[in-house]
C-alpha cells in the first residue's frame, strides 16, 4: 500500500510486501499465507503497484474473515514497528523524537525520501489545533482507500515513542483526485 516508506537506499515498495506477509503470518496467526499469495501476482521483494498489494489484502481478508480496513489498520501499526525493529530505526529518527514532533515533520520526511525515490507518490499531512495532549491531523492523498492504514501508522508511532495514543477519523472526504481525511489524535 506504500503510505509508509522504506529507508532511502531501498525503494518504498521493495520491502513493503515482506512486512505484510510477516504480519499475516506472525501477528494474525494466519497459516494460509501461501494460499493468499498464490491468488496474487506476488513473488517477494519487488516493486508492486497498489492494485497488486490491494489484491493481497483482499485475499487476506477473504481467508481471515477480517475486513480490509481492519487489515490495513493492523498493517499500518505493524509497519512502523517492523521498520523500527528491522534495523531502520535511524530512518524513523528523521521525523523527530516525539509523536507530535514526528507528525509535524511527516512532509519533510517524505520530501527527503522523494529525492531518492522520484517515482514516490507522497501524501500531504498538516497538523492543526495542537494542544498539550491533542492535535488534528489532516491527510491528503491521491491514493484512495488508505485511511485505515493511517490510523494504524499513528498507533504504531505512539508505541514507538512510548506515547499511548488514540486516533479517530472525524472527517473523510473524497476529492476529485483522491481523499482528504481529518483525524483527531490524543495522547
Task: Give a structural overview.
- The chain is α+β, with helices and mostly antiparallel strands and 187 residues long.
- Helix content is 50%, strand content 17%.
- The chain has seven helices and four strands.
- A four-stranded antiparallel β-sheet has the order 1-2-4-3.
- The longest helix has 26 residues, at 68-93.
- Residues 1-16 and 42-47 have low confidence and may be disordered.
- Low-confidence regions: 1-16, 42-47
Average pLDDT rating:
77
Percent helix range:
40-55%
User: What is the first-to-last residue Cα distance?
Assistant: 26 Å
Helix count, DSSP H or I runs of 4 or more residues: 7
- List how many beta strands DSSP finds: 4
In percent, how much strand structure appears in the residues? 15-25%
- Structural class, judged by helices and strands? alpha+beta
Instruction: Return Rg in Å.
Output: 16 Å
Overall, the morphology is: globular
Order of helices and strands: HHHHHHEEHEE
Give the spatial strand order of the biggest sheet: 1-2-4-3
**Main beta sheet:** 4 strands, antiparallel
Amino acid at each position: 500500500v506504500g503510505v509508509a516508506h522504506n529507508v532511502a537506499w531501498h525503494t518504498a515498495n521493495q520491502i513493503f510486501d515482506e512486512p505484510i506477509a510477516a504480519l499475516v503470518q506472525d501477528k494474525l496467526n494466519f497459516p494460509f499465507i501461501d494460499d493468499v499469495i498464490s491468488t496474487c501476482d506476488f513473488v517477494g521483494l519487488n516493486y508492486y503497484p497498489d492494485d497488486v498489494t490491494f489484491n493481497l489484502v483482499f485475499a487476506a481478508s477473504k481467508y481471515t474473515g477480517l475486513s480490509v480496513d481492519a487489515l490495513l489498520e493492523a498493517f499500518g501499526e505493524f509497519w512502523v514497528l517492523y521498520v523500527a525493529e528491522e534495523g531502520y530505526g535511524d530512518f524513523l529518527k528523521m521525523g523527530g523524537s516525539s509523536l507530535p514532533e514526528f507528525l509535524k515533520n511527516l512532509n519533510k520526511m517524505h520530501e527527503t525520501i522523494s529525492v531518492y525515490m522520484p517515482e514516490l507518490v507522497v501524501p500531504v499531512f498538516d497538523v492543526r489545533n495542537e494542544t498539550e495532549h491533542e492535535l488534528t491531523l489532516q491527510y491528503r492523498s491521491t491514493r484512495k482507500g488508505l485511511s485505515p492504514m493511517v490510523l494504524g501508522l499513528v498507533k504504531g508511532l505512539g508505541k514507538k515513542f512510548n506515547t499511548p495514543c488514540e486516533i479517530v477519523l472525524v472527517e473523510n472526504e473524497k476529492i476529485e483526485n483522491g481523499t482528504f481525511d481529518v483525524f483527531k489524535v490524543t495522547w
